[in-house]
Amino acid sequence: MADAVHEFELIERIVARLRDTARGDGVVLGPGDDAAVLEIPTGHQFVVSTDTLVADRHYPGGACADAIGYRSLAVATSDLAAMGATPAFATVSLTAENLTVNWAEHYAGGLATAARDFGITIVGGNIARGPESVTVTVHGHTPGGMAITRSGAKPGEVLYVTGSLGGAGLALADENLGEWSLVALKEDSPLKRYWMPRPRLELGIGLRGIASAAIDISDGLSSDLDHLCRASGVGCDVDLDAIPLYAGATALDAVAMGDDYELALAAPPDVRDTIADLAQRHGIPITPIATLRKDANPGAGWTQGGTLVEVRPGYRHF
Amino acid sequence: MADAVHEFELIERIVARLRDTARGDGVVLGPGDDAAVLEIPTGHQFVVSTDTLVADRHYPGGACADAIGYRSLAVATSDLAAMGATPAFATVSLTAENLTVNWAEHYAGGLATAARDFGITIVGGNIARGPESVTVTVHGHTPGGMAITRSGAKPGEVLYVTGSLGGAGLALADENLGEWSLVALKEDSPLKRYWMPRPRLELGIGLRGIASAAIDISDGLSSDLDHLCRASGVGCDVDLDAIPLYAGATALDAVAMGDDYELALAAPPDVRDTIADLAQRHGIPITPIATLRKDANPGAGWTQGGTLVEVRPGYRHF
Questions:
Q1: What is the pLDDT of residues B29-58, one digit of tens each?
Q2: Interchain proximity A34–B150, CB inside 8 Å
Q3: Is A4 close to B151, i.e. CB distance below 8 A?
């Protein structure tokens, strides 16, 4: 029975480390049973998304467990921000060859920090032996019919980007990227942007009923904007000089690199002031970068100084 | 852009292969956006569980993709059966080193077959490059407060097992286990039990308000019964001769091997007839195997012919 107890103990230690983030509003039954039982406000709809991070592919193998924990919840939660959903619950499936109690507790510690930052309860999960990877499924909710999709943008609308781009990408140049624990990360540094992305949750909720479409920038603006334009059946030319840049980033890199987890969104011209108010209230820039147009061949084009330019595609999963 | 389009195309081909199983009741928004938007009947609660299958650990590496597809949804859905939940939605995260269109379409075909069998809509997912594994998160629902947990069993109640045990375990002896496609599996064969387990969904729903506790037998009855007894704070002695066996299985193997995905459940003595009716209506035996007792040291003990015996623990995840 020694090994079975070990697995048991490991889960108990993880849940103990999650503390308050393993119980919360709407959680009728949390970790420890065959499934979790969850409630959302009457009249709301569930918003669900899943993301997998693979070691040596989506983050450096051997990276600090607490940083992996934070980042794994953040990247999944960013999809809720893009939908305008209120974050609520997550399940976490952890696979590792040698899952020690120490590693698992550090992972759970980083996860709990992120859960507190985002207002998410960890309601269940799975542990398995195998090549290291983490799959997080996040659950949020919106009032019925209020979720923001990729497909609602229309010609004549304005395209915006939140925050600044290119910061997280700069972190990839740090050859010690995998050696940073959360506590060592300096405020607003590229490393902090990489390991502790801040999904634009409050902005997303504020954009309900205002934005016509949104997508989170996970793979890079060049790819993700293309997804939004194709889903909405519109075109645009984005001037590289209009892109809000993280200090030290170049526009060509910033639009092709992912990991920033900002939002791209579209909205009619007549809500321009509302969007400016929202940006000010939350202290996050929302920058207009193009106007959408009818296009027989939907997608995003790029210009610089009035000339068409080629940009690299974003992160390739295959 | 060739690689980005490839990923796009791959997802499109998977969704195309899912056909009707990628849309269904309660799905406001299905695959293709940042997240899915879902609805369940008013007054119901969400029931959510996640499971990961790792190649070479939970199934033979190189196994037929359609068989992996079916099994990955089945094992996750079995947790919904144990909760008495009506199955509804699933997200699927697929990781593989060389995810070809052919492999992905076969995987999606098996997944779709299972989704149809269980009444589940595939509402989203993720694909990533990395060592082969599949994580499925399933979502079901029950009327408020009606979910069956592991912790509700009481002393004096009767412990039951559905169906028969040991069938799937026999398949592990087949050295060609990984070479079977779904269409080649013979009805009621050990191989079919292994690759196409049938979660006891109708029984689970029928047991709402009748069973005081339930758990699905995924790791083996010896482990899973121990979980139920500990969660409920009760003890029991199970006689090996009382275990309903698949033809050709021995009791000692059957209780220690997982993969059958039957249910263990507890219920008060006075609903014995109701349970017998339920078994008859669904054509699935529900066999009483022990009576629960107060126990200062909760857990399951084992006897044979009145003598205490040692059984092996179930599947060890670590």
A1: 999 999 999 999 999 999 999 999 999 999
A2: yes
A3: no
